[in-house]
Amino acid sequence: MTTSNAAAEVRLGILRDVDDVARIWREGWGDAHLGHVPAALVTARTPASFDERARDRVSDTIVATRAGVVAGFVMTDGDQVDQLYLDRSARGGGLGSALLDAAEQAVLAAGHRVAWLAVATGNTGARRFYERHGWIDEGPFVHQAPVPAGSVAVDCHRFVSPRR
After folding, report:
1. Does pTM top 0.85 for this prediction?
2. Under a CB-based contact definition with an 8 Å cutoff, are residues 2 and 98 in contact?
3. Which GO terms describe its molecular function (predicted)?
4. How far apart are CA 136 and CA 159, in angstroms?
5. 38 closest CA partner among 144, 156, 153
6. In the chain, where are the structural domains located?
């Protein structure tokens, strides 16, 4: 899978992308989640945890690059669009839309009827982004965010893709 729009390329992630993905994830996660998730989850999300998780998840990562540099990524996990983050300098330029579309297509191509994702309840910017893209907010639920010792309960909203 490789697509391009304007000066961006969307492709499957490779090991060479891991450091950029970890950095973007770490910065974006803080921007999106601090103040919206339990302290136990913030404590578990150390810089090393992003490095390790980016390495472990490279096989289900799609990246967007500009001039060969990773500017954003999305991960899938079965029928879930699990992570979507952009470099701070790339926000607002359409890469998030391209990544969301690529992830939805990957989930559906894998044989799932619908894609879904979880958004922390307080992350209103992300909730508006998904709504603008036609994703349907099915309401609140408690998401079990994985951490080394198990999981942490996070109040979220479940969104489902418009394509079925």
Report:
1. yes
2. no
3. acyltransferase activity, transferring groups other than amino-acyl groups
4. 5
5. 153
6. 2-160
Tokens 């109040």 belong to which residue?
A: 155
Q: What angle do CA 113, 125, 11 make, to 5 degrees?
A: 50
Q: Which amino acid is at 39?
A: A
Quick one: tokens of 4? 């391009």
Nearest residue to 130 via CA among 158, 110, 108 = 158
Residue 87: left (phi > 0), alpha (psi -120 to 50), or beta?
beta
The label of the residue with tokens 């990957």 reads 106
> What CATH code would you report for 2-160?
3.40.630.30
Query: Buried b vs exposed e over 55-79: b needs ≥16 C-beta within 10 Å?
Result: eebbebbbbbbbeeebbbbbbbeeb
Full DSSP string of 66-79: ETTEEEEEEEEETT
pLDDT score recorded for residue 164: 65
Amino acid at 68: G
**Segment 98-108, tens digit of pLDDT:** 999 999 999 99
From residue 45, give the alpha-carbon distance in Å to each of 10, 41, 116. 27, 6, 23
CA angle 74, 79, 84 (to 5 degrees): 15
